[in-house]
Sequence to fold (266 residues):
Amino acid sequence: MSQAPSSPTEYISGHLTHFAKPLNAQGGFWTIHVDTLVTTAIVGAIVFGFLWWVVRGATAGIPGKRQAAVELLVDFVNDQAKSIYHGTSSLVAPLALTTFTLVLFLNAMDFLPVDVTARFTHLFAPHWRIVPTADINTTAALALSVFFLMIVYSIRAKGLGGWLHELVTAPFGKNPLLWPANLLMNIVEYLSKPLSHSLRLYGNIYAGEIIFLLLGLWAATGLAGTIFGGVLNLGWAIFHILIVALQAFIFMMLTIVYLAMAEEHH
Fold:
C-alpha cells in the first residue's frame, strides 16, 4: 500500500495482497507471486550460503560456536532420519536437513514487522508479503516435491510392476472384485498426504500472520490499546517462536515418514 489505509479492513487486506504478475490476460491460476518467489530465493541463498560458509571453514579440532551450532543441527536431523527411515537411500537425511532449515527460516520471516518492511518494499512494489509459507503456493510446491519423491522411492523399492500391483491389491487383498476399492483407497491415501502436508503448515503460519496484524491494529487504537496490544503482541511473538520451530519440525518429520512409508511392502 503506497498510501495510508482508510480502514482496518483495508490495512489487513493490503498486507495480505501479493505482488502478483499474471502470465496471460485471464490471470487466475497462471499468476506468479513475485514476492513469494523473490523472498524464498533471498532467504534460501542467505541460509544455505551461511551453512556452506561454515562447512567450508569446518575443522577437525575444537569447533567454534558457528560450527558447533551447525553440527548440532545436522546431528539432530540425522538422528531423526535414522530413527524413522531404514532404507538404503542416502538422500533422505540431507533432504530432511534442507527442508527443516528452509521452512524454519521462511516461517521466521513472520517476526519482521510488516509496517517497517513495507516502507522498503513499497519503493518497488505496491504490495509485498514477506512470509512465503503463508502462501499456499509455497507449501503446496514443497509438499508436491515430497509427493513425487515418494512415488519415485516406492517404484525404486518395488519396481514399476510391483508398485502398480500394490495399488490394486492393497489393503483388501488380491481378489479382482476388490481391485476398484483398493485403487480408490490408495488414491485417497496418496492425495491426502500432500494436502495435509501443505495445508497444515500454511494454515498455522497464515493464522499467525493474521493475529500479528490484528494485535498491531489494536495497538494503534490509543494509549490503552498501545499498552495491551503491545504486551499481547510480545506474548504472541514469544509463543510464535514455538509455532515456527514446531511447524518446521513437523514438516520435516512428515517428509521422512512419507519416504519411509513409500518403501514399505504390504
